[in-house]
Write a structure and sequence with these properties.
The protein has 2 domains: about 130 residues, Orthogonal Bundle (Arc Repressor Mutant, subunit A), CATH 1.10.10; about 160 residues, 3-Layer(aba) Sandwich (Trna Endonuclease, Chain: A, domain 1), CATH 3.40.1350.10. The termini are far apart. Strand 6, helix 14 and strand 7 form a beta-alpha-beta unit. Strands 1, 2, 3, 4, 5, 6 and 7 form a 7-stranded mixed sheet that branches. Helices cover about 55% and strands about 15% of the residues. It is α/β, with parallel strands linked by helices.
Length: about 350
């Protein structure tokens, strides 16, 4: 029997079916993952209880591993090391509601990374929630932990409390970090601000990853005409969650009070020339090599536009106790200039 369905109608019908199937697959995978993580937690709780009640030693875990593998040869995950992780997991999170609400929403390998890399449960929960929110892979999670994201988020000095509505200011603070981690850049000692800007644009994927979810790059040296004169913004973004333009001004020196006035001018220009009725107020971020908190607070106190001031760190930055005790970048380059870059960079291995 000939079909009366048009090709367009059939295509839409097929797309709907695909969407239903994919949604069902995702829900099933999420449910299976949650059950697996919950199972591992319960095994860990049981091991803890037996060790505490009957004084079982570490050898019991090795015996359990052999017996469980023999009973369930088709199931992986009962190695001695994994059973020890189950025990540590249960010890770290004794409340099952936390497992169901948060930890069960990420994979077991994400949970192992949190156990390995962090000691404080507050940080573990924060990174777990960010993993759920942003869909981080395990390697992305490890990268964010090793970059100290927890300590950096919301650490920039800003005036959002009195320049933005509360709902907007809370979210705006969360998109700011200090310091930003630009260790992926290769900058010479004599680099100028335009070199800094070009390097960030050349590595825009890494730059956007460090800025965080929601930033959409609109351009560098973005031109605006005000009063018949051309002004150029170092970097212009649009933030899709905040629904606003974000202007970034790069400085390779310590913060100076006049930087906030210049940023206020840029924000006013963007608000007038680019912002539409559906956009929220434009936000400015001044990225400086260093800053004095009191100086920044004074500089922003009477600024009427939302401005944040953050610092950044580059690849050749060393902790103060190590400065002077290690060779300089120039010395390393002179001695190792015959080696490939990979040979002189630190690397981490993913389990």
């Amino acid at each position: 029997m000939a079909s009366n369905m048009s090709s367009d109608s059939y295509g839409r019908f097929l797309d709907d079916l695909k969407e239903w199937i994919q949604s069902a697959q995702l829900r099933a995978a999420t449910a299976v993952n949650r059950e697996l993580v919950t199972l591992y937690w319960r095994i860990g709780c049981a091991i803890l209880a037996k060790q505490q009640q009957e004084g079982w030693g570490a050898k019991v875990i090795e015996r359990l591993s052999k017996d469980l593998k023999h009973a369930f040869p088709e199931i992986k995950g009962f190695s001695r090391s994994n059973l020890l992780y189950m025990r540590a997991f249960a010890q770290a999170f004794p409340d099952e509601t936390v497992i169901q609400a948060v930890m069960g929403q990420i994979t077991w390998y994400h949970n192992i990374a949190l156990l390995d890399k962090l000691k404080a449960n507050e940080e573990r929960l924060w990174y777990a929630q960010k993993t759920i929110e942003h869909g981080w892979s395990r390697s992305a999670l490890v990268h964010q932990i090793e970059s100290g994201l927890y300590q950096r988020v919301g650490n920039a000095v800003n005036n959002f409390d009195h320049t933005l509505p509360q709902s907007q200011s809370d979210l705006a603070r969360q998109i700011l970090k200090s310091p930003y981690n630009f260790e992926f850049l290769e900058l010479a000692e004599a680099a100028q601000e335009r070199d800094f800007e070009r390097a960030l644009v050349d590595r825009i994927r890494d730059f956007l990853l460090e800025l965080g979810v929601g930033f959409s790059f609109l351009g560098s040296q973005y031109s605006l005409e005000v009063g018949g004169k051309e002004y150029k913004l170092d970097l212009l973004f649009y933030h899709v969650k905040l629904h606003c333009y974000v202007v970034i001004d790069l400085k390779m020196v310590e913060f100076e009070p006049e930087f906030s006035g210049k940023m206020s001018f840029y924000i006013a220009a963007v608000d007038d020339l680019l912002r539409s009725e559906i956009d929220n107020p434009t936000i400015g971020i001044v990225l400086c090599k260093s800053k004095n908190k009191a100086t920044v607070e004074y500089a922003l106190r009477y600024i009427q536009h939302p401005v944040g001031v953050a610092t950044y760190r580059l690849k050749d930055t060393l902790p103060e106790p190590l400065q002077g005790s290690l060779p300089s970048i120039e010395q390393l380059e002179m001695e190792l200039n015959t080696l490939p870059v990979e040979a002189i960079m630190d690397s981490t291995k993913d389990d």
